[in-house]
Amino acid sequence: MSDAIVSVEKAKAPKKDLITTQVRWGFSRPLNLEKLALLAQRVSGLGILVYLFFHIFVTGSIVGGPDGVPGGQDVFEGLMGMLFNPLAHIGELLVVVGATFHGINGIRVMLLELTRLVGHPIRPDYPYKTQMLGKGQQSILLTAMIMASLSAIAGVFILFLGAA
Amino acid sequence: MKESTLTLVNYIMILALLVTLALHLAMQAFLGVTGYADALSYQTALARYRDALSVSLLTILLIAATYHGLFGLRNILLEWRPGRHWHGAVTGITLGLAVVMLGWGMRTILFAFGGL
Question: ipTM of the predicted structure?
């Protein structure tokens, strides 16, 4: 009996690669600011994770340790000198902007999941409209974008113009 | 472990991450760092590992950031493909990465704090 109402077809993996799937989903119609925010959240999160991975090993060079791993003042300063260039600064700028956006937009997503910020559901009447971001969410997303822009400006001043 | 438990832990890690990251950046001022170049100097970096409060923050930050980052990566990868084998492989890879990141991070913290 259960065969009649439950599909026994095996789940199929999507044919596209991970990046294509994500980008196509983010930019598929109807375009939606909430989808783009989630896509940006994922891209920034992965970027920060890659940075964190290398950051742990770069800062790890501060100590040599008894295990024979090269480290100490010379190694650390050599690495820092190697990373003091415009290309690395652009990477650092992207990390600062990404982390700011990821943090504030992440608070919005948490509030969305844990509080009533999601808003009340409405009856889907024709012509259907995409139900997206309520006022509260819009304001937090806008704050995330403004703060990310401000951190970009501050980053340019500190990294490229030597303000600090 | 149940997915709901992992998600609950993730929420706790996010809160810890927000607090410790803000304090980590604020510590620059407490440690008397005067600018970007100074922040990258060996003495400044080492001072962060010699201060007990800063080391505690770094430890929490390391654990929270590693958990949250790898949990997010795991979710993206699990969403991409269905299947039990894929689920197991992704969980295994993320656990492996967690061991490497936490192991190396804790090694740095312990050796630098201990003055090795």
Answer: 0.90
Q: Which residues of A touch B73 (CB under 8 A)?
A: 45-46, 49
Neighbours of B105 (CB within 10 A): 23
Q: What is the pTM of this model?
A: 0.84
Amino acid type, B41: S
Q: Would residue A9 count as lying in a domain?
A: no
Which residues span the domain enclosing A23?
A: 15-159
Domain boundaries of chain B, sorted by first residue? 3-114
Name, in order, each residue with C-beta under 8 angstroms of B42's C-beta and a sequence gap of 6 or more: A62, A73, A76, A77, A80
- CATH of region B3-114: 1.20.1300
Q: Do A18 and B77 touch (CB under 8 A)?
A: yes
Q: Between chains, do B82 and A42 touch, taking CB under 8 Å as contact?
A: no
Q: Would you call B7 an interface residue with chain A, using a CB distance cutoff of 8 Å? A: no
Interval B21-70: pLDDT, tens? 888 877 776 666 667 777 778 888 888 888 888 899 999 999 999 999 99
Token output for A101: 């956006």
CATH code for the domain of A78? 1.20.1300.10
Q: How many CB pairs under 8 A join A and B?
A: 82
